[in-house]
Write a structure and sequence with these properties.
heterodimer; A: mainly alpha; two-stranded antiparallel sheet; B: Multiheme cytochrome fold; 2 domains; about 0% strand; elongated
């Protein structure tokens, strides 16, 4: 034993003389350095997150009272601005909406007939995100006339509040759209909804505030949660232009809320002031064009009843690290189900999407049924005109048709294909189809009095091109012969 | 592995000053680890206190809704969210789940609305019945279906759930990352 140990001992060299190469030491040092670097990064990440939660907002650049430039706001509020910039994305498509230039007239040629006489029959493209508001309003053929009221800029640019302040609201509306083009440099953005000093939500467009006054309410005397819908209601509402007595032009922006905000009450208001947007090219009916009454429709829905605001679904809260902020990428909630719907509805995203699309598809089907009845009603009245019916005889069917078409348009022009209030949408479409059929009934009696029993020869309007040819013929006074 | 490397360094034919450098670098790593453990409040993870779960901000809403709900009077986070069959299962589960959480949060991949992971479902369900078992004796379908308690009792953490559902002010402050006497030193 002893000899053995001794011989081993004599053979072994001192520990620090064993031949292990130098590179191992180098590797160890590098490895440990990597570990330290990773630990350091982790430490920095932890500390950053703590810091975020303690100091959420740092104003780097104080904002002027009418700062229109969204990028300048973005220097102070980078998270909100970055998400806002995503409204540039214009290739997102949901079943019925999304943010891309969908051509409604190609998809649904009936609308060419229904809008015959107003700009929409020539050009009706789905609007894209807020970022494109300026581009899209300039590009549409509906502003392609020598004089267009500057009112059309009202909801398109953050430069509008400044100009309204400088020019006065009435003068702003009365100006020519094309004269103000150089002033409009920034699309819908920060200032439209936010006070630059306090960041509080505020109303910058006078129409909705005036409508509240007419209802006997003060729009500034509402809760923050209501404000999270009302800033959207500055634009996403039904409106019309009041005729300017001096220029005999329609230019003053007003909401038809004096009698109330349901479709019947607005219709009653339009009847009372005897308003129309255009005379229909085929049936010569005075038509009120409905404009995306998103807010009014939402008011009748379950989400509104439960106090869920527009922003809750279209701009859901996000938490990034320790920071809570609002996602300013305003878009269809169907493109962000996880953050919007799933906060309250705990099903899978697939289930939620299927359910929403099922609701929308039903509304869409009902809408097409109403459209078919309306299109036929327009041709029926045109046939009665050709059969020599008098204006007095046609007054009643035209009044029904005008109401039926407004009801259909109320749902059709709404964003969300009825989802903002499914039952209300179906109710309105049911009324619309029923009224349109009543028009047809009345006209059938008129024709019967004139010994015409066979139905009119309805032209083929199954494609956009065919529908446009028919409308053009009526507009040029070369109407096709509808009577058998 | 590390022990083997240390051994190699000790056995190597390096000059003394190289060996010293190796030891210094290890010391730096260990020191850094201590600092990270301190600012990450790491020792708290060994405990069962609910405050440990809100060391990061992701669980703020879960904490606020638990604290204001009926369960806060009788149970803490770990009573429901880790297994209690035996201590080994509990600690293993806690360690793997915790590492997964810290990884996801560090690389900023956390979803806005949290859902139980597949492997967490049986754990939480077992914990429901651990306390509420007696109430279930009369529920005929309880063993015959794959339903969980929260299919119906969906509001245990409130009816609205999102990382942003509760304001940050509802959570207790984190302890200071530094040492208290250090802070005293810089106060004017």
């Amino acid at each position: 034993m002893t000899a053995n140990a001794k011989s081993e001992g004599s053979e072994s060299r001192p520990l620090d003389k064993l031949p292990v190469p130098l590179w191992i030491a180098a590797i160890i040092i590098l490895l440990v350095a990597a570990v330290v670097v990773l630990l350091g990064l982790l430490a920095v990440s932890i500390m950053e997150r703590r810091w975020e939660a303690q100091r959420p907002v740092v104003v780097l650049r104080p904002l002027g009272p009418w700062e229109p430039n969204n990028a300048v706001w973005g220097q102070n509020y980078p998270r909100q601005y970055e998400s806002y910039l995503k409204s540039r994305i214009s290739d997102t498509e949901t079943k019925f909406a999304g943010s891309f230039p969908r051509d409604y007239l190609e998809e649904d040629p009936y609308q060419v007939i229904l809008y015959a006489g107003t700009g929409f029959w020539r050009d009706y493209i789905q609007a894209r995100g807020h970022y494109w508001s300026l581009t899209d309003v300039v590009r549409t053929k509906r502003t392609d006339q020598p004089f267009v009221a500057a009112t059309c800029w009202t909801c398109k640019s953050t430069d509008v509040p400044r100009l309204m302040h400088e020019m006065g609201v009435r003068r702003f509306y009365a100006a020519n759209f094309h004269d103000l083009k150089a002033e409009m440099r920034h699309p819908v953005g920060c200032q439209d909804c936010h006070d630059p000093n306090t960041l509080n939500l505020r109303i910058t467009r006078p129409a909705v505030a005036e409508a509240f006054e007419v209802m006997g309410r003060d729009i500034n005397d509402v809760t923050h949660q209501e404000m999270r819908s009302l800033v959207c209601a500055q634009c996403h509402v039904e409106y019309y232009f009041v005729t300017n007595e001096r220029h005999r032009m329609k230019d003053y922006l007003r909401l038809p809320w004096a009698k109330g905000r349901s479709v019947e009450e607005m219709l009653a208001y339009y009847e009372q002031i005897n308003f129309h947007d255009y005379i229909h090219a085929i049936s010569q009916t005075p038509i009120v064009k409905s404009q995306h009454p998103d807010y009014e429709m939402y008011l009748t829905g379950i989400h509104s009843y439960r106090d869920v605001a527009c922003a809750d679904c279209h701009m859901p809260y996000r938490t990034q690290g320790g920071m809570k902020f609002t996602d300013h990428h305003v878009q269809s909630p169907l493109l962000n189900i996880a953050n919007s719907c799933a906060v309250c509805h705990r099903w899978s995203e697939d289930q939620i999407q299927t359910r929403v699309e099922a609701i929308q598809t039903k509304v869409h089907d009902a809408m097409l049924v109403a459209e078919e009845a309306l299109v036929r009603a327009h041709f029926d009245i045109a046939a009665a005109i050709q059969a020599g019916a008098t204006q007095e005889q046609l007054a009643r069917p035209r009044r029904f048709l005008r109401q039926a078409q407004f009801r259909w348009d109320y749902v059709s022009s709404n964003n969300g294909m009825g989802f903002h209030s499914p039952q209300e949408s179906m109710r309105i479409l049911g009324d619309s189809a029923n009224q349109a059929q009543q028009v047809r009934l009345l006209v059938a009696r008129l024709l019967a009095e004139k010994q015409i029993a066979a139905p009119p020869r309805y032209p083929d309007v199954s494609t956009r091109r065919k529908a446009e040819a028919i409308v053009n013929a009526f507009m040029q006074g070369e109407a096709i012969k509808l009577l058998p | 592995m590390v022990a083997k490397l240390i051994l190699l360094a000790r056995l190597s034919g390096l000059a003394r000053r190289w060996q010293v450098m190796v030891y210094v670098s290890f010391g730096a790593a260990v020191g850094m680890a201590v600092v990270v453990a301190r600012i990450a409040n790491a020792p708290s993870y060994l405990s069962d206190t609910p405050q440990a779960c809100i060391n990061c901000h992701v669980m703020t809403d879960a904490y606020a809704s638990w604290q204001r709900g009926s369960h806060s009077r009788v149970a803490v986070c770990t009573d429901c969210h880790v297994p209690h069959s035996n201590p080994v299962a509990k600690l293993t589960y806690k360690a793997t789940d915790g590492l997964k959480h810290s990884y996801v949060f560090t690389v900023r991949q956390e979803p806005q609305v949290l859902r139980l992971s597949e492997r967490a479902v049986p754990v939480v369900q077992a914990n429901c019945t651990r306390c509420h078992g007696a109430q279930l004796m009369m529920v005929r379908l309880v063993s015959s279906s794959r339903r969980t308690c929260w299919d119906c009792h969906s509001n245990i953490h409130g009816s609205v759930r999102s990382l942003s559902a509760s304001p940050g002010v509802l959570r207790p402050q984190l302890p200071a990352a530094g040492l208290s006497w250090l802070k005293k030193g810089i106060e004017p």
